[in-house]
């Protein structure tokens, strides 16, 4: 298999999303291809960075503001009925 | 198609029934439960704290208005996240259109949380440095995510940052799992190339 078609499968390979045959082909290729092995390592880093992004706290007033709008909406419906 | 039993197994089933009968307090419970996740999805999609705050408010109001029509074909949380993703995408289009028309100047005020240049003292504490490094990398990753087109941005936000399964991402975006895979691959490649430019080969 050519490097290009292997590289396209590396994301799925990393997450165990390939069929067993595809997985075997990629694994075989990686044994002898330094370029694709490097790509796999790069990919692992990127996924680790994105997965490592911290959760952001929403503003403390958010739920209150949402509920003020929701209650306004509920009242206006009552008014119509 | 989900059966009635599947719908009942939705963790929010009882609360949704109350909301559908007009119980506003029950709806507040859902808001408190999901606000953080909704906010984080929108923040990573729009890349802007204030925009995300606005989008999440609009999303919950939209959910409230439409909750009577929720039939439980998808899990309630999936329905919620679909709404916030769509509203974030729309907001993103508006932001892009706006920034296209606006020019910025080097004389503009420094854009920090409080509008002031940061003047924190230099610290030799390694853990602080590590934290700073992590934060800086995080900011660069977010900048790179911001540079993606929304169809690639949404898959990386939902899969890699929020940790949804391929199936869940496909359901939220109404695309096939194969499409999720191929877009994710391209999104990660683009972020990789962007980070290489931003940090150098030592990223």
Broad shape of chain A: elongated
Mean pLDDT of chain A: 91
- Give start-end ranges of low-pLDDT stretches of chain A: none
Q: Report the structural category of chain A.
A: mainly alpha
Q: Low-confidence runs of chain B (pLDDT<50, min 5 residues)?
A: 117-124
What does this structure look like?
The complex is a heterodimer of chains A (81) and B (203). Chain A has helices at residues 3-14, 20-32, 34-51, 62-80. Chain A has 81 residues and is mainly α. The relative contact order of chain A is 0.10. By secondary structure, chain B is mostly helical. Chain B is built from 9 helices and no strands. Mean pLDDT of chain B is 84; it is low at 117-124.
In short:
The complex is a heterodimer of chains A (81) and B (203). With 81 residues, chain A is mainly α.
Key phrases:
heterodimer; A: 4 helices; B: 203 residues; mainly alpha; 9 helices
Per-chain topology:
The complex is a heterodimer of chains A (81) and B (203).
Chain A: H1 3-14, H2 20-32, H3 34-51, H4 62-80
Chain B: H1 4-8, H2 13-20, H3 24-46, H4 49-66, H5 76-101, H6 126-146, H7 150-161, H8 166-173, H9 177-199
Helix pairs in contact in B: 2-3, 3-4, 3-5, 4-5, 5-8, 6-9, 7-9, 8-9
